[in-house]
Amino acid sequence: MSTREPGFRRDGSWVGASVPRREDPRLLVGRGRFVDDITLPGMLHAQFVRAGVAHARITGVDLAEVLATPGVVAAFTADDLGLADITAVLDRPPHEFVPTAMPVLARDKVRYVGEPIAIVVARDPYAVEDGVEAAIVEYDELAPVMSDTAALAPGAELVHAEAPANTLVDVSLFATEGIDDVFQNAPTVVRVQAKTGRQNALPLETRGVVADWDDRDEQLRVQTCTQIPHQVRTVLARCTGLAERQVRVTVPDMGGGFGQKCVVGREEIAAAAAALRLRRPVKWIEDRRDALTAAFLAREQRYDARAAFDAEGAILALDVDIVCDMGAYSCYPFTAGIEPLMASAEMPGVYRLPAYRVRGRAVTTNKAPTGPYRGVSRPQYVMVMERLMEKAARALQLDAVEVRRRNVITVFPYRGVNNITYDPGSYRESLDLCEQVLHDEGWYKVRSDSQESPDRVIGIGYSCFSERTGYGSGAFAARKMSVVPGFDISEIKMDISGTVVVSTGTMSHGQSHETTMAQIVADRLGLDINQVKIVQGDTDRITYGFGSFASRSITIGGSAVAAASAKLTEQLREIAAHLLETDVDNTELDGAGGVRLRDVPGRGMSFADIAEIAYLKAHLLPKGVGPGLAATASFDVMGDGTFSNATHGVVVELDRGTGGIEILRYVCVEDCGVAIHPQVVEGQCRGGIAQGIAGALFEQVNYDDTGQPLCPSFMEYKVPTAAEIPDVAIHHLETPCAFTESGAKGAGEGGTIGAPAAVLNAVNDGLRHTGVELDDTPIARESVYRALEGTYRD
Amino acid sequence: MKPAAFTYHRPGSVAGALGLLRDLGDDAKIIAGGQSLVAMMNFRLARPEHLIDIRRVPGLDQIRRDGDTLRVGALVTHHAVEVAALGRDFDVLSRAMRWVGHLPIRTRGTIGGSLAHADATAEWCLLAVLLDAVITVEGPAGRREVAAGDFFQGVFTTALEPDELIVEVVFPRPAPRAALTEFAERRGDFAIVAAAVDLDLPRVVLGGVAPVPYLVSGEWSGETTPHSRLAEEAAAAVQVRDEPGVSAHYRRGLVRTLVQRACAEAEEVR
User: pTM for the complete prediction?
Assistant: First the structure.
């Protein structure tokens, strides 16, 4: 492990250098191509008739006026399109998981306001909205189920008839024997009851698709902004009855996804089906109101957690009940299990926990459904764990950082009570360094000075956490997913110019994979990165892929491109050895786009020379090699993945007069192993932290009692702006991963995971003298105000 | 989020705009900066059949000092006021503009549009009441002047007749000891509570506590009333109810804090 500054370039290698991004020339001058930039001849525009009520049987859908609206070309209901339902499944018994179908268009029942009922297709984006307005939907209304507690209440209306007690997932993954005795005998037991707000992952680019049928290719061509092109293809084929070869999903530039585009959207299927039916191109661009009310949401969870500690502050046991409000449907492919299973499996986190019991439930309610969102449950359970640490410190009158220090895993590999093996990380080191930085910067003095003054209220808070990245087939199979994402396949082809095109099954939605993957390949082949082109997001050009999520792209996809590069290297060396009449072992890459002899380094062949022979003079090739220069390799992790880690330290100032919360300082000490591109890592940290702060302090999707969403615009949904997000100081530690090809660990989600806990702890530190502790997010300013005023009531 | 169809008109004079208003009646809506109206149209919450765009009407975008009086044309943008050198007499207007939305909004939104829209937390509405502004409107019968105190009648409701147009806002007296401040969770949001004070009268006007800018009445005299008394009396005066996320107690507390802070700022700039 070593500390280092970003921006250096190690030993002339590409990996580790913050090189200019390959994506930037087009994106920065406005020459990127996003879905909404695509226009096809004769293209029509689609929008959806959406449910105006939260829970009802549909008794009639009348589209006559829609079809009579000027400019409207067609309108289809579920019955008109006759598509198969989308059903996500876990391989778990019925008492643990209830599969529920999500129709592409609501058929018999609507389950949330905004649910698509009919698709309207028109000549322009204005006429289609006129058409949507003209639809008449008749309902037989049912009582809306608007909270997890209402869903679980005896006699509650059922959102899905097949799911008793509105429960889709009920799994108890761990229950250490004798845990009740541990609690009974423990010197200290602390408890956190916390509720976290429903959030929207909120990619700047809303969802969208352009679809058309191509007679010549016999293909439905679907250009959509998705993190998982192959899974969209599968669902499209199943819903429409086409073979997979008849569906081509391609992905243009993407303006973010954060998980919301990691599930198959009903609208993209419906729009493609309409294009197929009409034999005309159809575009659907989700408008912001629909994105805020009808897209996949996330993060609404309730925790009741108890932790037992010994007198020295060592944690003895954790017992937690987790209820996740998953809204109206299971998302494909992850199901409604995504949040409760993630939280249940990973909650012990960075701490040496001897005994663990957990129950995780997913309940269904009449809200827009839940999908993955950057961090998936980890921002929530880390927050709860870190609150438990703080409460234990208070109960034992110890320093909260010291309590963490006494509990973090320091010996690796560590086999956890949750049956996960943690690979080496820098948990303790990140904690120490983060605390040191805030000390050195003088924030502890600022805080102690504030305690002398009636005007200033300062709090300091931390979160220490790890993040499992590079989930392979083994990890997802353990979750009992019926679609088991894990491997990635990469294909590399060298052309006659000696440059390469490399495919990856991962899908950058803004994370710079065209640069970072190219850095890995460039190092493996000894090429300039400008001679490496990464291809992603095309089901016809890529053998198979699971896309990008769960910080898997560099760990798994990056390892696959490295493995493919290694295979190609062997071919290049074999051909060169044959032509130079030497042994393969006497050849090596020269680091400048060629192969040279080890014993006579001045003698060798450029890749272009080798490639010319491989393609144009194949008769000169050695037996068993070529013709052509191409290789395919795959990579998977059958073990438990690799753990990135970080500690975040936050200083807040609380405003007695308003309850306002201002972040004065934010320090992040992160360790993602070898950083392929330190500036990209820092960008991921900063963006993630902004989203974490959003959850801690600002964003919440609210509904009224009848299920009407109360946040249809950015006026109500309080996404923070640059004015609310502080500068973030980032310090790097480096514990290389032993089994990814570059030593890299995932870096996509950590920022989001650590921020809510650190911010919440800092606020509570500021409130320490009041005796009030706040455990819910987003933190209500009124609660802070009342706590400081002395009028807080729970 | 596309508006319903409308017909777009672009008159070149006030008379032309008034003529269109007269001919098109209730189906027409004046648009200037469009920062509230266009959003409402995109949500189809507003669906005027005709839009009368007055942005090209000459002569309505001037700021003029006229003795003790400041005259601000209806088409003057928030940003133009923010960066104008108005001197200490009217500097409160420039400082208050920093609270209006975000910069792009300020570069398009206008004083006339803001007053006509009459959001009860809008900075211009508070300032108009605070500073005894006179709003000059023009209609078929010619010009008339409406005191700010009479202009705001209810939620998004003003004394403006459907066939009338705001042409100018007159601030009749210098206010060198005035300030406006707000609280919201995000910079640029509509305020949960906004407070404007003029210490020379003294006077306190609040936003976010009533359907219209709320003028706090009190028996105060300029030099002798402590700020804390203004703050306490303002907090006691407002009639507010518990609302989701903001209790009456909290809103009153915000009133107390913001009046105090506005007073401090007004004192500081002297």
Answer: 0.96
